[in-house]
Amino acid sequence: MKRLFLLSSTMIVLGLAVVLASLASRTAQAQDQPADSADGPRRAVSDAVAADMDPAELIVTVPNLPTADHSQFEILKQDFQSGPEVTAACLTCHTEAAHQLMQTSHWTWICPRAKQELEDEQHIAVGKAEHVINNFCIALPSNEPRCTSCHAGYGWEDKTFDFGDETRVDCLICHDQTGTYKKFPTSAGHPVYESTPMEKREWPKGSGKHWEPVDLAAVARSVGTPTRSNCGSCHFYGGGGEGVKHGDMDVTLAEPHRSLDVHMAVDGANFNCQTCHTTASHKIAGRCFSTPAFDEREFVMRGTGGNMLACESCHTPRPHPTANPHKKNGETIHLSWSDIARNKKLNDHTDKVACETCHVPKMAPEKATKMWWDWSKAGEKTEDGKPVTRKTELQTASGTETVPTYLTKKGEFIWAANVNPEYIWFNGRMNHTFMGDKIDDQTPAKDLCEHSHGANDLIDENEPVVFINRLDTGYADPLARIKPVKIHRGIQPYDPVNKTLVIPKLFPGKGPDKGEAYWKIYDWGRSIEAGMAYAGLEYSGEFDWIQTEMIWPLSHMVKPADEAVTCGECHTRSEEGRLAEVHGFYMPGRDHSPLLDWLGILLIVGALGVSLLHGSARLVFGMKG
User: Fold this and answer.
1) Cα angle at 441 between 435 and 442, to 5 degrees?
2) How far apart are CA 126 and CA 114, in angstroms?
3) How confident is the model over 407-414, as a mean pLDDT?
4) How far apart are CA 249 and CA 277, in angstroms?
5) What's the CA gap between 144 and 189, in Å, rounded?
6) Which of 233, 107, 98 is nearest to 174 (CA)?
7) Residue 53 banded pLDDT, cuts 50, 70, 90
8) Distance between alpha carbon 188 and the CA centroid of its chain, in Å?
9) How far apart are alpha carbons 237 and 202 in whole angstroms?
10) Where are the beta strands (DSSP E) in 261-388?
11) Would you say 326 and 332 are in contact if contact means Cβ atoms under 8 Å apart?
């Protein structure tokens, strides 16, 4: 027994010595070898750069400093009476600016690349101006004066708008630096002028509050490089109000703190929108309906004209450092072997998990976003015929916010704040249900999609649902990644005879059909007939209601690394796990097979048994000499 005890003790000590020696060797190699050899032979240059340097140090943000003082220009010291007059003055120096803008989707509301691709397939153009329908305010045709308050132009009131008139381009909405320039919500892109009648300055209607005229000359003399606030004057308010459309864009991004968005934080990198949405000749990089925001996930040297929208453009496809020394925030840091092992494992995720999946852990953290919009409930009034408004309070990460849950004009809503996103397979491309497309109004939602019902909506899974945009991809697609999204669901009108989504005329405007607008007469039949006639689409004269959903990917409000999603939030068998509804692949910690589990147990028991048998045999035969 004494010899057995000594032999066992010796084996344990030797085993520990081997393990410690191996760990020491790995740590020494990691610290002593150059950055490009931690994983063996040198990888791509971008990987070596990422391993050795904090990607933030690679960013060169263009200074927000103009090269001319516009307050000195005599032509801008005149008494402007309208926006087009300001534009005419701008064009005396910036002779090509309007022409450049006119080639972009900010002017045409048509996606150039989608137009080219879909013309070959379906012979249609795609954009808010044509064919696209949504489940917020539904569609542009017949509602232009209200929708085009976010157009980069003046006077798009109907089909007669002159897209070739350069003075109709609005320079000030993107370049104002006073913070006082605002388009009036129902004036087709115009602000309030001195000449605007007092009754047309009131907003909201019936509130008794009137907008003051904009000092056009002062705004014109202030112009400079667009800021987050310039872009946000439209994009923060998509869908008819702040936070309505996007779950990752609202006014908090104008001056965000680091915990809200690590890139745009005023106390951090302080990116403006163009840092990622790079621009050239007024063309701004970005996702456009069916076309992806970027085609390649690779490191891009800033200044070479490449698209910078992919996280990998700065952070490379292997963003977590695996070599020593590593620079972070200007400091040289030596990683431990455990840090390197962890980061290697994190890098193994990047071929199937989008960066935002871990680094955008919450949707609408500080300002609520709309999740459900039921148009069928619109029209309720008080006994004396007054509009009805109901509100509720939501708890956000920064306090309490009051949001409307019912409006006579728009129906019933559900909002959410500081909640987990939904997750889907996303390869950058989306297919859309366009105006006039035939829809399926028979198949129950539960038979179409495993995630047709979210945590913040009233979807009935036994009733049909129309996917206004959809993703035909999955795990097998090499371009697909698990991506966080907001899915906006609701109920909107459709034609049950022609089986198409319909376009109601909501806003009165100035045309001959202004008396048919829903917000004027609250008659769905008449407003749908007017909207469909304006759009030139077939309408049977009958309408009903159908459930719809629309996907909005989340890419902003990126948290610092120490606030990212933890491993256990996904790798869990809990029904509350973040990826519980993402299927088509095996994920450790979430998925299991009883057969494999038993095989694994048998292998472990077998290995232990063989080891004990081997050790016992050596002891027995060793005692016998």
Assistant:
1) 160
2) 6
3) 98
4) 15
5) 10
6) 233
7) very low
8) 26
9) 19
10) 279-280, 283-284, 326-328, 331-333, 369-374
11) yes
pLDDT digits (tens, 9 = 90+) for 356-403: 999 999 999 999 999 999 999 999 999 999 999 999 999 999 999 999
> Which of 243-247, 294-298, 313-317, 427-431 bottoms out in mean pLDDT, i.e. has the lowest?
294-298
Chain mean position to CA 543:
33
Token pair recorded at residue 525: 């039949």
Q: At what angle do helices 337-347 and 2-32 cross, to 10 degrees?
A: 70
The SS3 assignment for 153 reads strand
User: Which three-class secondary structure state does DSSP give residue 71?
Assistant: helix
Query: Do strands 465-467 and 544-553 pair parallel, antiparallel, or not at all (unpaired)?
Result: parallel
Q: How many CB atoms lie within 10 A of CB 160?
A: 8
Residue 450 in contact with residue 428, Cβ under 8 Å? Answer: no
Query: What distance in Å separates the CA atoms of residue 217 and residue 74, rounded to the nearest whole number?
Result: 11
Q: Tokens 């157009």 identify what position?
A: 151
pLDDT tens sequence across 204-248: 888 899 999 999 999 999 999 999 999 999 999 999 999 999 999
Three-state secondary-structure class, residue 394? strand
Per-residue pLDDT reduced to its tens digit, 590-609: 998 888 888 889 999 989 98
What is the gyration radius of the CA atoms in the chain, in angstroms?
30
| Contact call for residues 141 and 158 (beta carbons, < 8 A) | no
pLDDT at 118: 59
Residues 6+ positions from 564 with CB-CB distance below 8 Å: 358, 359, 361
- Residue position matching structure tokens 């400093």: 65
Q: CB of 151 within 8 A of CB of 144? A: no
Listed in sequence order, the residues at least 6 apart from 285 whose beta carbon sits closer than 8 Å to its beta carbon are 276, 277, 278, 279, 293, 294, 307, 308, 309
Contacts 24+ apart (CB under 8 A), 209-217: 211/182, 211/184, 214/180, 214/181, 214/182, 215/178, 215/180, 216/80, 216/81, 216/82, 216/83, 216/85, 216/86, 216/172, 216/191, 217/76, 217/77, 217/78, 217/79, 217/80
pTM: 0.85
* Phi, psi of 322, rounded to the nearest 5 degrees: -130, 15
- The SS3 call for residue 367 is coil
Angle at 431 between CA 430 and CA 432, to 5 degrees: 115
More confident residue, 176 or 11: 176
* Token digits of residue 123: 């012979």
- Residue among 379, 389, 409 nearest 143 (CA): 409
Task: List strand residue ranges (DSSP E) for 375-451, in order.
Answer: 389-396, 399-407, 411-416, 422-426, 431-432
Tell me the per-residue pLDDT of 506-532, one tens digit each, with 9 for 90 and over. 999 888 899 999 999 999 999 999 999
List the domain boundaries for the chain.
Answer: 369-569, 593-625
